[in-house]
Design the sequence.
Protein backbone atom coordinates (compact mmCIF):
# COMPACT_ATOMS: atom_id res chain seq x y z
CA UNK A 1 0.00 0.00 0.00
CA UNK A 2 1.40 3.38 -1.02
CA UNK A 3 2.25 5.90 1.68
CA UNK A 4 0.27 8.43 -0.37
CA UNK A 5 -2.88 6.33 -0.57
CA UNK A 6 -4.69 8.77 1.73
CA UNK A 7 -4.38 11.41 -1.01
CA UNK A 8 -6.58 10.66 -3.99
CA UNK A 9 -8.88 11.97 -6.66
CA UNK A 10 -12.25 10.19 -6.51
CA UNK A 11 -14.68 9.78 -9.37
CA UNK A 12 -18.21 9.02 -8.18
CA UNK A 13 -20.65 7.56 -10.74
CA UNK A 14 -19.25 9.81 -13.38
CA UNK A 15 -20.78 9.98 -16.84
CA UNK A 16 -20.00 12.06 -19.89
CA UNK A 17 -22.34 12.90 -22.76
CA UNK A 18 -22.33 15.71 -25.25
CA UNK A 19 -25.43 17.15 -26.83
CA UNK A 20 -24.90 18.99 -30.09
CA UNK A 21 -27.51 20.43 -32.48
CA UNK A 22 -27.90 17.25 -34.48
CA UNK A 23 -27.52 14.46 -31.93
CA UNK A 24 -26.13 13.40 -28.57
CA UNK A 25 -22.95 11.43 -27.92
CA UNK A 26 -22.88 9.24 -24.81
CA UNK A 27 -19.32 8.19 -23.95
CA UNK A 28 -19.58 6.42 -20.58
CA UNK A 29 -21.66 6.44 -17.41
CA UNK A 30 -21.54 5.21 -13.80
CA UNK A 31 -17.76 5.19 -13.69
CA UNK A 32 -16.40 5.15 -10.12
CA UNK A 33 -12.76 4.80 -9.13
CA UNK A 34 -9.96 6.52 -7.24
CA UNK A 35 -6.68 7.87 -8.54
CA UNK A 36 -4.23 7.48 -5.68
CA UNK A 37 -0.99 9.36 -5.30
CA UNK A 38 1.90 7.01 -5.99
CA UNK A 39 -0.04 4.77 -8.40
CA UNK A 40 -0.13 4.65 -12.19
CA UNK A 41 -3.13 4.25 -14.47
CA UNK A 42 -3.41 3.88 -18.24
CA UNK A 43 -6.55 4.64 -20.25
CA UNK A 44 -6.60 2.83 -23.59
CA UNK A 45 -9.02 2.12 -26.41
CA UNK A 46 -9.99 3.10 -29.94
CA UNK A 47 -9.97 6.64 -31.29
CA UNK A 48 -13.12 8.53 -30.32
CA UNK A 49 -14.03 6.19 -27.44
CA UNK A 50 -13.76 8.90 -24.76
CA UNK A 51 -10.24 8.60 -23.33
CA UNK A 52 -9.33 12.28 -23.53
CA UNK A 53 -12.78 13.24 -22.26
CA UNK A 54 -12.26 11.04 -19.18
CA UNK A 55 -8.84 12.60 -18.61
CA UNK A 56 -10.31 16.10 -18.79
CA UNK A 57 -12.96 15.42 -16.19
CA UNK A 58 -10.77 13.28 -13.90
CA UNK A 59 -8.33 16.20 -13.73
CA UNK A 60 -11.09 18.71 -13.06
CA UNK A 61 -10.57 20.63 -16.29
CA UNK A 62 -14.08 19.75 -17.48
CA UNK A 63 -17.31 19.00 -15.66
CA UNK A 64 -18.92 15.56 -15.99
CA UNK A 65 -22.47 15.33 -17.39
CA UNK A 66 -23.41 13.27 -14.31
CA UNK A 67 -21.69 12.28 -11.07
CA UNK A 68 -18.83 14.16 -9.43
CA UNK A 69 -15.06 14.34 -9.13
CA UNK A 70 -13.50 15.34 -5.79
CA UNK A 71 -10.14 15.37 -4.05
CA UNK A 72 -9.88 13.36 -0.83
CA UNK A 73 -7.11 13.75 1.74
CA UNK A 74 -7.23 11.68 4.93
CA UNK A 75 -10.92 11.20 4.28
CA UNK A 76 -11.59 14.94 3.99
CA UNK A 77 -13.31 15.86 0.74
CA UNK A 78 -12.42 19.01 -1.18
CA UNK A 79 -13.43 20.30 -4.61
CA UNK A 80 -11.00 19.11 -7.28
CA UNK A 81 -10.36 22.78 -8.14
CA UNK A 82 -8.49 23.13 -4.82
CA UNK A 83 -5.58 21.08 -6.11
CA UNK A 84 -5.38 22.52 -9.62
CA UNK A 85 -1.91 23.95 -8.92
CA UNK A 86 -0.69 20.50 -7.79
CA UNK A 87 -1.51 18.84 -11.11
CA UNK A 88 0.87 18.55 -14.07
CA UNK A 89 -0.85 18.36 -17.45
CA UNK A 90 0.56 17.07 -20.70
CA UNK A 91 -1.90 17.80 -23.52
CA UNK A 92 -1.96 16.53 -27.09
CA UNK A 93 -1.60 20.15 -28.18
CA UNK A 94 1.33 21.23 -26.10
CA UNK A 95 0.10 24.74 -25.13
CA UNK A 96 3.60 26.18 -24.90
CA UNK A 97 3.94 29.96 -24.76
CA UNK A 98 5.19 30.97 -28.22
CA UNK A 99 7.16 34.05 -27.08
CA UNK A 100 9.08 32.15 -24.40
CA UNK A 101 12.09 29.95 -25.10
CA UNK A 102 12.16 26.34 -23.90
CA UNK A 103 13.96 27.26 -20.68
CA UNK A 104 11.43 29.93 -19.70
CA UNK A 105 8.44 27.78 -20.68
CA UNK A 106 9.65 25.10 -18.26
CA UNK A 107 10.67 27.61 -15.57
CA UNK A 108 7.28 29.35 -15.58
CA UNK A 109 5.44 27.05 -13.10
CA UNK A 110 8.33 27.49 -10.65
CA UNK A 111 8.53 31.27 -11.17
CA UNK A 112 4.80 31.50 -10.48
CA UNK A 113 5.55 29.83 -7.13
CA UNK A 114 8.34 32.33 -6.43
CA UNK A 115 11.10 29.71 -6.70
CA UNK A 116 14.46 31.53 -6.95
CA UNK A 117 16.05 28.41 -8.46
CA UNK A 118 13.47 28.28 -11.27
CA UNK A 119 15.88 28.61 -14.19
CA UNK A 120 18.44 26.18 -12.77
CA UNK A 121 15.80 23.52 -12.05
CA UNK A 122 14.17 24.06 -15.47
CA UNK A 123 17.57 23.54 -17.11
CA UNK A 124 18.01 20.24 -15.24
CA UNK A 125 14.62 19.03 -16.44
CA UNK A 126 15.31 20.01 -20.05
CA UNK A 127 18.53 18.01 -19.80
CA UNK A 128 16.56 15.05 -18.41
CA UNK A 129 14.25 15.08 -21.46
CA UNK A 130 17.25 15.32 -23.81
CA UNK A 131 16.93 19.01 -24.67
CA UNK A 132 19.95 20.51 -22.93
CA UNK A 133 21.04 21.80 -26.35
CA UNK A 134 17.74 23.59 -27.09
CA UNK A 135 17.32 25.86 -24.04
CA UNK A 136 17.06 29.10 -26.03
CA UNK A 137 14.81 27.83 -28.82
CA UNK A 138 11.24 29.09 -28.98
CA UNK A 139 8.46 26.53 -29.65
CA UNK A 140 8.23 27.40 -33.37
CA UNK A 141 11.95 26.61 -33.69
CA UNK A 142 11.50 23.13 -32.20
CA UNK A 143 10.27 19.89 -33.80
CA UNK A 144 6.96 18.37 -32.69
CA UNK A 145 8.71 15.77 -30.56
CA UNK A 146 10.95 18.44 -29.01
CA UNK A 147 7.90 20.59 -28.17
CA UNK A 148 6.31 17.54 -26.57
CA UNK A 149 9.39 17.01 -24.41
CA UNK A 150 9.36 20.69 -23.33
CA UNK A 151 5.70 20.26 -22.36
CA UNK A 152 6.61 17.14 -20.36
CA UNK A 153 9.44 18.93 -18.54
CA UNK A 154 7.05 21.80 -17.75
CA UNK A 155 4.47 19.37 -16.33
CA UNK A 156 6.98 17.59 -14.09
CA UNK A 157 9.27 20.44 -12.98
CA UNK A 158 7.28 21.35 -9.86
CA UNK A 159 6.91 17.77 -8.49
CA UNK A 160 3.14 17.61 -9.00
CA UNK A 161 0.93 15.43 -6.82
CA UNK A 162 -0.86 14.17 -9.93
CA UNK A 163 0.18 13.96 -13.57
CA UNK A 164 -2.37 13.71 -16.38
CA UNK A 165 -0.84 12.95 -19.75
CA UNK A 166 -2.63 12.62 -23.09
CA UNK A 167 -0.50 10.58 -25.52
CA UNK A 168 2.73 11.81 -23.91
CA UNK A 169 4.97 9.87 -26.28
CA UNK A 170 2.83 10.22 -29.41
CA UNK A 171 5.37 12.31 -31.33
CA UNK A 172 8.52 10.52 -30.22
CA UNK A 173 10.81 7.86 -31.68
CA UNK A 174 11.07 4.57 -29.81
CA UNK A 175 14.17 5.51 -27.83
CA UNK A 176 12.89 8.94 -26.73
CA UNK A 177 9.50 7.41 -25.94
CA UNK A 178 11.16 4.85 -23.67
CA UNK A 179 13.17 7.55 -21.89
CA UNK A 180 10.08 9.72 -21.36
CA UNK A 181 8.10 6.74 -20.09
CA UNK A 182 10.90 6.04 -17.60
CA UNK A 183 10.77 9.66 -16.40
CA UNK A 184 6.99 9.62 -15.95
CA UNK A 185 6.96 6.33 -14.06
CA UNK A 186 9.89 7.50 -11.91
CA UNK A 187 7.81 10.53 -10.85
CA UNK A 188 5.13 8.09 -9.76
CA UNK A 189 7.38 5.49 -8.11
CA UNK A 190 10.04 7.71 -6.54
CA UNK A 191 8.23 10.99 -5.93
CA UNK A 192 4.76 9.65 -5.20
CA UNK A 193 2.83 11.31 -8.02
CA UNK A 194 -0.44 9.77 -9.18
CA UNK A 195 0.02 9.19 -12.92
CA UNK A 196 -2.82 8.90 -15.44
CA UNK A 197 -1.87 8.26 -19.06
CA UNK A 198 -4.03 8.14 -22.16
CA UNK A 199 -2.17 6.13 -24.76
CA UNK A 200 -2.44 3.98 -27.88
CA UNK A 201 0.89 2.39 -26.96
CA UNK A 202 0.62 -1.08 -25.41
CA UNK A 203 4.22 -0.75 -24.32
CA UNK A 204 3.38 2.34 -22.28
CA UNK A 205 0.03 1.06 -21.00
CA UNK A 206 1.51 -2.19 -19.73
CA UNK A 207 3.88 -0.31 -17.45
CA UNK A 208 0.95 1.19 -15.55
CA UNK A 209 -0.31 -0.60 -12.46
CA UNK A 210 -3.90 -0.43 -13.68
CA UNK A 211 -5.39 -0.15 -17.13
CA UNK A 212 -8.88 1.05 -18.00
CA UNK A 213 -9.70 -0.09 -21.52
CA UNK A 214 -12.50 1.25 -23.65
CA UNK A 215 -13.58 -1.59 -25.88
CA UNK A 216 -16.53 -1.85 -28.29
CA UNK A 217 -18.71 0.58 -26.37
CA UNK A 218 -17.80 -0.72 -22.90
CA UNK A 219 -14.93 -0.09 -20.57
CA UNK A 220 -13.21 -2.45 -18.19
CA UNK A 221 -10.28 -2.63 -15.79
CA UNK A 222 -7.63 -5.05 -16.98
CA UNK A 223 -5.36 -5.35 -13.97
CA UNK A 224 -7.43 -4.14 -11.15
CA UNK A 225 -8.49 -4.56 -7.61
CA UNK A 226 -10.86 -1.65 -8.12
CA UNK A 227 -13.84 -3.67 -9.30
CA UNK A 228 -15.44 -0.67 -10.94
CA UNK A 229 -18.15 -1.00 -13.54
CA UNK A 230 -18.71 1.37 -16.35
CA UNK A 231 -21.44 1.47 -18.95
CA UNK A 232 -20.97 3.19 -22.25
N1 LIG B 1 -17.16 19.17 -26.38
C1 LIG B 1 -17.63 18.18 -27.13
N2 LIG B 1 -18.82 18.30 -27.76
C2 LIG B 1 -19.31 17.28 -28.53
N3 LIG B 1 -18.68 16.11 -28.73
C3 LIG B 1 -17.48 15.92 -28.13
C4 LIG B 1 -16.90 16.95 -27.30
N4 LIG B 1 -15.71 16.47 -26.82
C5 LIG B 1 -15.57 15.23 -27.34
N5 LIG B 1 -16.63 14.90 -28.12
C6 LIG B 1 -16.82 13.63 -28.83
O1 LIG B 1 -16.62 12.57 -27.92
C7 LIG B 1 -15.93 11.49 -28.58
C8 LIG B 1 -14.76 11.07 -27.73
O2 LIG B 1 -13.73 12.07 -27.82
P1 LIG B 1 -12.34 11.88 -27.07
O3 LIG B 1 -11.44 12.98 -27.51
O4 LIG B 1 -12.57 11.71 -25.62
O5 LIG B 1 -11.85 10.48 -27.68
P2 LIG B 1 -10.47 9.70 -27.53
O6 LIG B 1 -10.79 8.31 -27.13
O7 LIG B 1 -9.53 10.46 -26.67
O8 LIG B 1 -9.95 9.71 -29.05
P3 LIG B 1 -8.47 9.78 -29.70
O9 LIG B 1 -7.80 8.47 -29.39
O10 LIG B 1 -8.78 9.92 -31.17
O11 LIG B 1 -7.75 10.98 -29.14
C9 LIG B 1 -15.57 11.97 -29.97
O12 LIG B 1 -16.45 11.36 -30.89
C10 LIG B 1 -15.79 13.47 -29.92
O13 LIG B 1 -16.29 13.97 -31.13
Sequence:
Amino acid sequence: MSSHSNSKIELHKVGQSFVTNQHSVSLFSDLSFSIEQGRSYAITGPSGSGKSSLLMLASGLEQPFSGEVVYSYNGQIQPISHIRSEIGFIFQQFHLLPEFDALNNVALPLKLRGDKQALAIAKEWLEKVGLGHRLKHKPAQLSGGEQQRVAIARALVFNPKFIFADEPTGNLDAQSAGEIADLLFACCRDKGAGLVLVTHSDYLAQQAQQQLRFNAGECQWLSTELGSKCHA
User: Anything to note?
Assistant: The chain has one domain: 7-221.
